[in-house]
Task: structure prediction
Amino acid sequence: MHIVVCVKQVPDTKIIKINPKTNTLDRRSAPAILNPYDAHAVQEAVKIKKIAGGTISVLSMGPPQATAVIKKSIEIGADRGYLISDRAFAGADTLATSYALSKALERISKEIPVDMIICGKHAIDGDTGQVGPGIARRLDIPPVTNVIEVTEINTKEKTVLIKRKLTNGHELIQAELPCLLTVEKEINEIEYSPLTNMIQAARYEPIIWAVSDLENVERAQLGLKGSPTIVGKMFSPPKPEGGKRIEGTSEEQVKQLMDLLMEKKELFTLQSTK
Result:
């Protein structure tokens, strides 16, 4: 069984700042990390490999320094890693990204047929959740999103039983292989990597492909040329106002609370009539 996990290098959004002049993310203000959802995707692939056997590949698109997230994936337990890196990919939105990754997956599958593709639910720098389903659509394989458990793998019947998260519960789905999964963080816990994995990751050199290494690529669908998305503005959300402290006797506190509730009601009524 061959599992390919799509991973992305992202800025740590806990630290990153927004440039007030350009309204864009200041990526220099934060360290680059493996997208947290993708880390859980790699960990799930390791779990499946222990049950069904096979091999794990990771695939990423980005600048040369994105090899760091592939090495991190090797540390978690992946066997090999591919990076597609070319100036032609620069400025890609989710549409162009899914196209480029699907072309890389087509080449990988010619070397070793792919049985399953796993992606994180979304990347924390974009939060769209569109790349995974976009890849599945281009490869014409079934996508299953918001996966919280891979319940059963039947390699003989080429099926997988999956539990996916819903707004008010979950559902069980049986999908045919090959398929694509996007996983939630709750699907597993990231395990501590053994020393052998760390040594292997430190020594590992990912396979790097340019556009010219991929087949039947329409350059008009890559990078900015292939990206119809336009970001109008980006800004930090306003900080919530602090709560109001109610003091005094019980009777005084009740009166203050009723006054506040009436103010809120009047404000809501006024806004609704506008």
Q: What stands out?
A: Residues 238-274 form one domain. The chain has two domains: 2-221, 238-274. The chain has six helices and 13 strands. Residues 18 and 236 are 7 Å apart (CA to CA).
